[in-house]
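To the team - 2'-monophosphoadenosine-5'-diphosphate complex, inputs and output below.
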Amino acid sequence: MTEMPIPLAGVVGHPIAHSKSPQLHKHWLKSYRLPGDYIPMDVQEDDLEQVIRALPKAGFVGVNITIPHKIAILQMADLVTDRATLIGAANTLIFRRDGKIHADNTDGYGFIANLRAGAPGWRSDLGPAAILGAGGAARAVISALIEAGVTDILLSNRTRPKADALRAEFGSKVRVVDWVQAGNMLEEAATVVNTTSLGMTGAADFRVPLDGLRRGTIVTDLVYAPLRTRLLQEADEMGCVTVDGLGMLLHQAVPAFERWFGVRPEVDMRTRAAVLG
Ligand code: ATR
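Output:
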């Protein structure tokens, strides 16, 4: 009789030491008493394809893909989901029994699930969403908001052509606003999302003027180090509903964990504590 191998998953990136995903997945494996393990792997770009191709043979059922490989990995996949194609990047691979590599992007799902959990009153028809930033994270957020039914998205980025390119791609639901006017677009917004690295430990300060924010506006920051960014603190003081970015990290992992290990995990206070601790 052959023993069932222990299913392995992990995260592939470079660097990888900072990743919180191992703590998260190991916490769920333990909580649900499931056999399995989750391993961080520091892999350079030149070695990426060779490593990915070898993993299924070593007992891996899938991996997360993180910076800087999220775009390049699409070329190596045999199947790419519509949402990964739309975002132009993948964060989750599933190694199928038939040997095919399936690439998905759960960042947009994680963003919306976190928003709904942190601001239960959020609906897609509350009014315009204002997005700061036009990088990779903004693409996932915009595609998720459109998929959820938001029809008016205000987009502002320091480098305007990157915002114009997203507008060209996502269409007339996106309106581009000059970076110097970013504060003004907040007056109109029902939902505000920071997708820039501004306010992150070690990055430049978040300096967009916030006096236009209205009481009750839902404000979320993808930056989660620190957990309470200046944006969230000031928005709180102004009577906004704030949602921190750690939840997006937790929620994006739910569909992956379910596909790999067969149980849909809960995101609760214990999950947050496991990742923060
Ligand atoms: P991610 O995948 O996390 O979105 P990214 O693609 O490097 O990372 O995008 C980073 C975002 O933060 C961009 O919108 C970037 O603005 P630019 O397109 O002008 O570079 C924004 N950003 C980073 N540093 C910034 C700063 N000092 N001021 C304003 N925006 C900044």
